[in-house]
Amino acid sequence: MSSNAAPLRHLRVIEMTEALAGPYCSMLLGDLGADVIKIERPGRGDQARGWGPPFVQGESAYYLSVNRNKRSVELNIKDPPQLEYLHRLLETADAFITNVPRMSSLERAGIDPNSLRRLNPRMVYAAISGYGHTGPKAGRGGYDIIAQGEAGLMAITGDKNSAPIRFPTPMADITAGIYTLIGILTALYARDDRVSGTGRGQFVDVSLVDSQTTWLANLAGSYFAAGEHPRPLGNTHPTVTPYQPVRARDKMLIIAVGTEKLWGQFCEATGLDSTVVADPRFATNADRNRNREALIRIIESRLASADAADWVEKLVERGVPAGPINLPDETLRDEQLRARGMIVELEHPLLGLVKSLGNPVHMSGNGPSYRRYPPRLGEHNEEVLAELKARETTQ
User: Was domain 252-324 assigned CATH 3.30.1540.10?
Assistant: First the structure.
């Protein structure tokens, strides 16, 4: 797709974040066409540049995974002339993203919301932090693993015999990045709406803990409604059975029988329709929940007669949701993922072909595009400065 058709092509985003949540948010904006300028500390840059191994020609694979579609500029904002340069850039911006956790630090640096609102009242100011900028824990530092623990997810991940388990990828960071994207786009819409637009930006305040807590979702609903304390459930579903991994002859597969119609189709596909369908212990989903262990023993005894791939094929043919349990490398080679354009390949002048996961938002018109490889530290120092000078000259 031509980048000229990108829906956010008229927006400029200044990103001064590190690690994952902020870079992930700004990468998604860049995928949708925004001009994203990544501000980095001279000589060191984003801390994620040092997170490895693996490294590719000295560049961290972690950094490469969340920084495409950006330009990199080195700035030491503690130096007054360079802070002035940042302010000049921010005067041209539609959105600014930072992950400095303490408002006092932002104020000392001269990049707090009030200062920048006077500089550019149209700009949306998005702040990502561990706990947010209000409340008794405001200002605390926070990483993904802290949010996973504090938000109640680690305590219920695993089975009843497990110690708390961290989800292996930074889901609090990723979730906060997505919510920040939603907040920025909403604030821009509120600014520019032709009927009720204010013409002014807003302060968007997103925390990792808030974002991670939203994953409690239906479990929080059960607690609010009945005072139920969630417990570790392993791979089972608290209210639907069978909805879990089950073992076949060679390995495990996943089945998801969410309705009574699917239950009948599942029993037909597995040849259990002459036995378990008539068993009063399994007559309804509520019955199956109460007798889950007995039912799973019967199902796994039947599935032991064939390999997982054979059962997946039979179940899918009957309209029953089922799938394999892939290793990550199997997923990344999957034909469905590639057919959906979810493997992005960008040519890097030093590293060769750099691959990353694509943007999952598929649109019938002008959706995501992939134009820039993850930038080298300070790669665009001169380019951005020249653009800024040219812009100021013509004003």
Answer: yes
